Fold each of these.
Amino acid sequence: MSEKYKAIDPELPYFVTFSIIEWMPLFRSSDYADIIVNSIRYCMDNKGLELFAYCIMPTHLHMIIRAVGKGPGPIMRDLKKFTSSEITRALKYDTENLNMIVAFKKAASDIRRNKYLKVWQDGYHPEMIYSNKFFFQKLNYIHMNPVKGGIVELPEDYYYSSARNYAELSAPLEIIIQSIELETL
């Protein structure tokens, strides 16, 4: 793994991304997106995860997070492991997504630790948020993702995005909306 994608300072926020195997559009279904929402909420309530921004796209998700004192690694590992189990459990009863099950089985067949399905691509690609300018660049990127993807016309129209929080609309997750005082490195 390159140095670019390592969380080295546990005090700073990070832009993180993780994607579904073969970019399958699993999160088009709110049933699966809600698994992510509930898991993020659990990590916020019980593991010290601070959430500044998020967007759960059909094939991947982006977040700006912080886990003071720990860094994001252990929380992201647990989040991906738990959501993978929950998604696998839900897919067993989902006859409409057989193509996803086949793709996830194929991905798991090459890995000893995976017994049935591999849902997530490896890694979470943390990028350290080192300045306010970079924070707002990533925030804009996250919020514009569904617009650029042709899903909605306005960022706040996408339900699974913190753009709704910033627009003071109902949203599935609470976030921290405050200025982060960061020095430019």
Amino acid sequence: MSSLSDDEFENILSIQNKCTRLNLNENVYGTFAEIGAGQETVRHFFRAGNPKGTIAKTLSAYDKDFSDAIYGLDPQNRYVTVRRLKRMIDYEAELIEQRLSRKKYPNKLFFSYANTVATIDWAKKYKGHGWLGIKFQKEPKQEYSEIILHVQFHENNASQQQISLGIMGVNLIYAAYYQSEDPKVLIKKLYDHLSKDKIEIDSINFKGPVFKNVDNRLMSLELVKEGITEAVMFSPEGNNILPANALYKKNILTLRGSFRPVTNLNLNMYMSARKLFMEQEEVDPERSIIIFEMTLSNLKSEDNDEIDEKDFLDRADLLCASGQTVMISNFQEYYKVVEYFSMHTKKELGLVMGVDNLIDIFNERYYRHLSGGILEAFGKLFFKSLKVYLYPIRDEKTGEIITSKNLKVHPRVKELYKFFVDNGKVIDIEDYDDDSLDIHPRKVYEMIKEGDHEWENMVPGLTAKMIKEKELFSVQKD
């Protein structure tokens, strides 16, 4: 074993020292399977001391026929997929269990590490992406735990991407064995000796006995909080999903809000806009997705600017239970979310919003950081096939219903506003629910906290039932 103490190792976390510590651990033993960028991770272990202590086998089934022969045919003939990665780590873990006797090695902690990636193409049109994963034991004969993540490469050179991949691979294996008590810390440690502008993690999932108390939605949130990625998504089942896959070539309709909780107003906005969106000739309902988006600012407490994780999960539970796909983003301005969607699709885009949100969009002060000001922002917002589905509001003083047709904006942007309305970029939702106009989501939340049961008439039935039964938002049962 090594002559260095644990504290000394923790203070010298070079990539070589991480590999050396693992190599000198007489029980950690496993296989490396790397496809697409060479054997970038295992190379570090070969260069460190005592590689035979860790490496049982290493391979790169680079040829597709060989990969298929080992891991099976993919139904869609694709190789850089989570399905392929899972097959790789499962297959290799099963193989090491078959080939090494537990009677002979009772204390071994087996692992299988794999990656399947596509680095930047020669034309530099596609930056590249990939999947990394490890299946591992922290106790002898323990059921395996897993960490699986997806990365996007941002460097413009394939060899640089390979270097970053190798470093992150070492960080992942090391973190699995020595830093997995707190997954939030583990996520940060994946970037040891790496910068976030080189390689982006946009999806991560933890599974198994080591992570039995981990909610992967919170891990998604952590990626956005730490500035590792700008947006994450999870399915109605509550599982993290890869945005690039979910959005690819889809028509996208998005409703942004705090959803604390979902109200009848939110529901009617969603249903009315969905009907109009799907009625467009260009929109194929089978190739469409509707997203309920929350920004980090939506999630932060007004008192201390912190995110209450239980509060976040309460909202997520309600949205998932109603069958919604949820996105958490760091996009303050609407044009940024449109830019993000446009990276994944050229199809139709729709934003659902209330009149008050539209007024904010036409407020010039939000765009002072852009050299082109509001014109630059609107060029990014409206140059794609995008429409705003506008839900009216009721003027609290006069009772007048405010739509795009009688909305007053600042004189400096009046002509700009008129241009977009006249060109059909803003569509009024006429089939609105008059009673919903008197619902103010923030007041609904306050009523829940204060024990005023009138809130139950302002939210969908399933939402009210779940809030009471699960005591969401700290509501007390009768």
Amino acid sequence: MASHSRRAEICATALFGLLAAAPGAWAQAQSSTTNNVPAGMVAYYTAPGNPTTLDCPADWTQYQDGQGRLILGTTVAGEVGTKSNAAQPTADGQVPTHQHPFTATWNLNKQKSVGGSGQYKPFASSGGQSGGGTSGWGDSGYGFIQFLVCSSTTSTGDEVPVNTIGYFTTQTCPANWSPQTTLNGYFPLPVAPNGPVSSTYNAPGWHVGSFPTHTHPNAAVASFAVQKLGVQYSGIASGAKASTDSVPVSAQLQANTTDVLPAVALLVCQKTQGSGTGSGVPSGISLFYSQANSCPVSTWGPAVGAPGYLILGISGSTSTGAGSFSQGLPIGSPLTPGGTNPGHTHPISITADLGENTTGGTSGTVYYGMGGNYTATGTTSSATIAVPYVALLLCQAG
């Protein structure tokens, strides 16, 4: 009995000496146990928040490269952390937009006009003409939802549930995680429980730096309302004109010169083994899960308002220069996995100077088009962008 008491005394003395020698290490160990999510993992904070106080949980920091961008999974060496396009939105409730350069053509129809009395006026020559410009802004047609995007910075454990799909800023997956190559080049799309989880759509996947372009065929624009001749010559019937009142204008859009979606590529991994109780996952952090029936922890639930919306990362109130963004704001219409891809259009406006032609004469037949500036506006034909996405359950830790 005396021997047992002596051993306990020695152990207690040794433990006291260790703590006294390294108080900093003890304090760090205590703090790090609050976050059992691997460092380098990027996830969304989906709990409701006031834009003036919105911030990531302890041991997490706002992931700046994800602000105004979507996450695109990759397992390609060298792609992790690469970005496409400028960050959008820059203001609350905006969706990513893009433009197209275009060329337009029109034809001024000729009509006979008889000169007389040596008079002439400045008119444009009739016939085919062309011009160009840049279309108005248009979005992709997909629906989006705004969530704060955070990165795990300090962790000493991993209690993330098995079958979680995670996105990482690291070049390799953590222990007990494996690269999810089937999701390479796909955006995560949250779905409701019992949905088509882990199904991919619109293959092949995209890669940052080489997103496909698109165009809009048969992009018709409205007509110029060309005025009548406006000059009364001798022998000309009242109302004579050098062009029809309506001059059709057709426009052809070229391929977009910027990516249609702002994105950052992150390593996509799946947890395949190890413990996974969910303890130490901060409340409000949401993780993608590859199983269909329900969230893996009884106190967790699907992220509110997320199913069918691609997620745009936003900045919180503590970010430098951050705007005031509405957490969980849905924009547009949600997508039904496997359903019809949405289409989109662009407004077009072109102002043409029809030029001047001072040719006139005292006799003979002359053909004129009316000079001056005219504007045609209209809307392009619709185009569909087959955005690659994977359906995943997004579960919020309780």
